[in-house]
Amino acid sequence: MRDRFQEWVPRIVLAPSFAAVLIFVYGFILYTGWLSMTNSRMLPNNDFIGLANYTKLFGLKHWHIALTNLAIFGVLYIVISSVLGLFLAILLDQQIRNEGFIRTVYLYPMAISFIVTGVAWKWFLDPGIGLENTMHQWGWESFEFRWIKDRDFAIYTIVIAAIWQSSGYVMAMFLAGLRGVDNEIIKAAQVDGASGFLIYRRIIIPMMRPVFLSAFVVLTHLAIKSYDLVVAMTGGGPGRATEVPATFMYSYTFTRNQMGVGASSAIIMLIMVFSIVVPYLYSEIRHGEKQK
Amino acid sequence: MSHPAQENAINAGRLTRILIYTVLIFFVIYYLLPLWVMVSNSLKTLDEIRGGDMLAPPADITFEPWRQAWSQTQIGVEATGLKPYFLNSIIMVVPAVLLSTLLGALNGYVMTKWEFPGVNLIFGAMLLACFIPFQIVLIPMARILGMLGLAGTLGGLIMVHTVYGLGFTTLFFRNYYAAFPTELVRAAQIDGAGFFQVFRRILLPSSGPIIVVTIIWQFTNVWNDFLFGASFSGYSSTPITVALNNLVNSSTGVKEYNVHFAGAILAALPTLVVYIVSGRYFVRGLMAGAVKG
To answer: Do B147 and B223 have their domain in common?
Structure first.
């Protein structure tokens, strides 16, 4: 009797969490998927209209701006964060005095919310009181930096702030990777007369492939989800210049009363994230099983 | 492996080392700059900010912006300062973090020590759930919260954060307990210990580090959340991130930059303090959150 009961306890303990995830994640995905095929406006309704919302979505200039911005933001953010992160990790791996302190400084932005980061950079890049004004005070009268107010350049200010926030994180990932490199390999290369630069370029950096992959997946999914930083820094503006899919989804769903279109944009975002994350997790888990 | 860095180091000349330190210090300044700008300008008068150099330290230190930000400035329609929103965030964070951590610990325990058919599939489903863009759940969640009578309440936000925190807390504990010797669990079972006894007496006493990692991770995420707060909070349940954004991006009145900076620091302070006090655990959480499987 007791054994029977004991056998069921683990399932009963796991059940609420599993049910919660099943409903609140997968059930909700299905529901949003269904809504994306209805003509829901301010409130959800069940008038099926097929893929009309998707056709409409991809015909909207607003959505194209959002996708273009995501592409610009995503590529610059991922590439620069990775390169800067690797660069700083290699420098920090050279028996640096006060390494702990420097690491702490590089990584602290990850502890801060995107809203706070946004506020700091918004005013720092504001031509009226920030960097431009400061340079004028310092006597550089012709200095001009108005990107945050400029339709063509505002998206790059968000890149700047986002890189500030997460490059330290990438640095920490690479540093952990570098510390895991087998010293024997490096010694052997040194015996063969390879220079430090060459060892990094030909041996160590190629060994960082798994870290590059992890960093890529983490940064990509952060990029696609980025919402807070845009809201805090530019609110999607000037005009629609810094609109991204996440802000698009929010405004179409909750302020423009086009819930069907909003839901279809959310589905597109999900497809983007899953097309990166699912293969990654699958290979990680497979790899993990093999090691067992 | 205590000093592996030593072996990897480039055998560099003095000039190279000076160059390395210069670059590293340059980036220390780069990362600290926004924090410095916030702190120094939160202590200046508005006139000094408008007329002066943003990077300079305050000429006359004033704490007025801090007082304003904490208890007087206008947010939305009421001049309450950030204080009530700060309290909202605390009331929201504490139960959400404790609940999701406890459930994560139990889930991790089941998944590693009481495996049953299908448990890996459940883990996979929970793991994938960590990565969904939350836009996908906003509409149905708003409906469910309405149906449960939790729309616009802190109770609703606690529920939301607990549910969407489960994936990561389960992942953390599962990976930690996977390395815990199963023989000890089996031995205790032979001695007649049941499910909860084994958990309490055998696993929990050695779970200190992973509990700290998980709590810090959850605390940081829930405190810093904006999307759920903006979507599901009401008049009396707005968390601090949303209130700060309302303060800074309100289109009415004079822009009180010094108050904005003081408010931003107030909003960042709890997670910053946690990071400074226990950075090691924070980094472990970040790493565990990045490297799966």
So the answer is: yes
Task: Confirm whether B205 is domain-assigned.
Answer: yes
Query: In the numeric block, which tokens belong to residue B60?
Result: 């006359």
Provide the ipTM.
0.89
Domain that holds residue B45: 4-62
pLDDT at B282: 82
A–B CB contacts, 8 A cutoff, strictly below = 301
Element spanning A50, H or E:
none
- pLDDT tens by residue, A224-240: 999 999 999 998 878 88
Q: DSSP letter at B57?
A: P
Provide the percentage of residues in chain A whose pLDDT is more than 90: 56
B88 with B52, same domain: the answer is no
Side chain identity at B75, as an amino acid letter?
Answer: I
User: Residue B269: inside a domain, yes or no?
Assistant: yes
Same-domain status, B55 and B93: no
Q: Are A170 and B291 in contact (CB under 8 A)?
A: no
What are the chain B neighbours of A109 within 8 Å (beta carbons)? 31, 34
A residues 107..146 contacting B (CB < 8 A): 107-124, 128-131, 133-134, 137-138
Q: Residue B289: is it exposed, middle or buried by C-beta count within 10 angstroms (0-12/13-18/19+)?
A: middle
Q: Are A115 and A108 in contact (CB under 8 A)?
A: no
Model pLDDT for residues B24-78, shown as the tens digit of each residue: 999 999 999 999 999 999 999 888 888 878 888 888 889 999 999 998 888 877 8
Tokens 């997946």, residue located: A217
Beta carbons of A13 and B107 less than 8 Å apart: yes
